[in-house]
Every structure is written in structure tokens, then in C-alpha cells.
Predict the 3D structure of the following.
Amino acid sequence: MPILLLVIVGAAAGFLATRFMKLDADVPTTVAIGIFGALVGGLILRALITMASWAAGFVGAVMGAMLLIWLWRRWAGRR
């Protein structure tokens, strides 16, 4: 069943991609474009999400450190 689903999704993705890019292709080529495009797109998307999560963690760490410095200055300044 997963292979059949992959072919169906690949056919739909390939059909849309070939229409958007104005490429005249036969059915097997359209399905192959869709399947391989899904693989490439999935890898790129996973890489971007990984980088974004790392960057978000870094930004969060910097913001947390800045908050601690601000609190420290506020607390230490009142003594």
C-alpha cells in the first residue's frame, strides 16, 4: 500500500510541477519527477527545519542570557 500511495502522490506532484513549469512529459516521466522531487524536497525541508531549530535554540539561549543579565543588574543595583 505505501508504494501505491507514493506513486499516486508522486503522480499528482509531478503533474502539478510539470504544469507549473510548462514541461510536456509523458506519464512515467511525470510520476518519476514527482517521486524524486518529493525525495529532494523532503531532504531540503528537513535540513532547513534542522537549521531553523538550531538557530531558534541559539536565539533563545541568547535571549535567556540577556534576560538573566537584565535581572542581575536590576537585583544587584538595588542593594
Notes: The longest helix spans residues 27-77. The chain has a mean pLDDT of 85. Residues 2-77 form one domain. The helical segments are 2-20, 27-77.
